[in-house]
Amino acid sequence: MTKIKFVALFSCLMLILLTACNTNEKSSIKLAEVTRSLFYAPQYVALEKGFFEEENLDVELQTTWGGDKTMTALLSDGADIALVGSETSIYVYTQNSKDYAVNFANLTQTDGTFLVAKEEHPEFKWKDLNDSIFLGQRKGGMPQMVGEFVLKKNNIDPHNDLELLQNVDFANIPGAFVSGDAEYVQLFEPTASVFEKEGKGHIIASFGEESGNVPYTGFMAKQSYLKENKDEAKRFTRAIYKAQQWVEENSAEEIAKVIQPYFEDTELDILTTSIQRYKDQDSFATNPSLKEEDWENLKEIMNEAGELKEDVPYDELVNTELAEEVANE
């Protein structure tokens, strides 16, 4: 073999090896979650079961505590991907943001709150809320919009037929319910089950069951990130899909055991009960693809709440390409 041919062959081999090495390099992703919630169980499963590591991803999770703060982190590059309510992407889009956030993987497909009452209501009907004091969630957020949507669906005007309280911060709602005059409150798990176990309240209805399928919480990233980091985003989506399938196929108790490190102050039986509630009402999406009919339901809920300033087409803010690709592999 001539020296020139040898050098050429050697160069080709080195190029192949370098390409393979680059493919195997671990990518880092900064992930911001809007709050620490049992509702996001599949995400914690993906972390604890090593599904991100299998995709050669080093995911750094931070809890940003609130939709506004989460979106600020995403838009300012403090996070690459955000787990937050899909309504926030609409708010950003309608502010004429140039590099707006796009929903590319859905995580939860129903509302995650429950109606909790101070007294037992063995034969509860939604009309029982008339003339009551109801402690709701923050105005403009998905829990509150869904809450009002469900009340209206049951012929209750939330601003005239009852006393609706919306002036309490999210973190302080449980304490305000216990110490205040409110007869009803809208709570997430595991707080709702903890209250029931401690005799502080009784779960009497599900807002998730009443409101139907909606892209309640999902993963989004800026347009520029998805364009420049398509491979990383696809591997991220594949890890989430693996976790969604694992959650679907395993018991609530097994899921609780896996994610307990993220909820050290909550007993295993409460975690198990809460997860089972969510599984029973199909809250956890089994596929990361965000359906158009669910998006339309989201817009209807926002419109009923007076928060949809303009129509936002599904094709503008939803990208199902990655989700469909990993689901069809």
UniProtKB/TrEMBL annotation:
Could you say which protein family the record assigns here?
A: Belongs to the bacterial solute-binding protein SsuA/TauA family.
Major site of localization recorded for this protein: periplasm
Q: Tell me where it resides.
A: Periplasm
Write the protein's name.
Answer: NitT/TauT family transport system substrate-binding protein
Record's keyword terms, sorted: Signal
Q: Which residues form the signal peptide?
A: 1-20
